[in-house]
Give the backbone structure.
Amino acid sequence: MAWTELELQAGLRAGPHRALLPLILQGLMLLTSPCLGGPPQPARTPLSPGQPFLVLWGIPNKACSGRPDPGAFGMEREGRVSMFYEDTLGKYPYYTNQDQPVNGGLPQHTRLDGHLQKTGEDLAAALPSIGYQGLGVLRWGQWSPQWGRNREKQGIYLEGSRALLRTFFPDWTTEEVEKWSQSILMETLWEVRRLRPKALWGVTPYPNCYNSGPAQSLSNYTGRCPAAEMALNDELLWLWKCCSALYPALTLEKLQGGTSGARLYTSNQIREALRVASLAGTAYDLPVFPLVRSVYTSTNTFLSEVDLVNTIGESAAMGAAGVILWEKDQGVLGLYAVNVTTAARLCGVSLCQGRGRCVRRKPESFAYLHLPPSNFAWKRDFQCQWYESLEGAAADEELPKDRGAKDTVVPVYKKCLWNRNS
């Protein structure tokens, strides 16, 4: 798809820093990228002890009746992943496919007190246990909190915002408009982390580096994330500080299937997510769990074995904490899942004494965590990303018990900066 910046109309001006920001940050990102060699930063301890890479089942069991138990194939059963959609948590504003507004349609129409009250009610119904220790995924992608990333069908949010601003705030900048969207995401993440502090919370499809532009054909496609998009991801630091995990989305078209372009696309998406995971200022990198769609987008047919390697295999080898499957299952997928999860566990024991996960020394290499095991190859091609100590991790996860009566006067942008290492 062609991603083009929508022009701003008179009366809504971009801040002066936007034009130069990608150029300024490009060099800084190259210097600070965790994928340029050297030992990686510490990782959060695994969700399941002793298992550095998980294949998580994000599909309701009732949708797969009659199929083998996912646990027999090294997949975590239903219940470890909780998905929340635009209509299942709070009063998230959005437009339907028929352009009908729901909850006001625009972020500017959202009453945060009502939204947060409904969020608490919905969360209590979906996850009654305060001690829930799974993944909490907000699948909220109807609009972007960044003005310039509301592209194509998301343009309805720009047009609606422009109409509203022409009437009430004609001199506002794009940055001032973005604060409305930011406050919804920040307040929601703050609330769910307060109510279910042991869960790992994040928003999908973030981060994304939009590296599938049509200007490159299959023959010259590099998969590299554009510097401007990486700079925009850096601007989302406020979001990464509110998350306790990252959930990028990996989807493939049949045309890409089995090609080197498919691997370049997924590898660079994962690489960017891992880079972003190191920015949040915690004592360890945020865990990354790509959402893998197990069928091709346009044909709804299962991914080939090659593309299972391009998605699940790449995620494991590059240092993701696991993947979430959000489509149907098939026999090959189950067999591959048990292969990768077992290899990741054995490598972690062999190279890291069970105190870390195996991560490629060179992110662009073709080294994978596959059976049968090869201690020599693993030692040559992989290094250890050590786990942060349980004591340090627990300290970093601690949240205030009660926001208190004076919480309403605390600037929203400060609420996710509570971490001691911010």
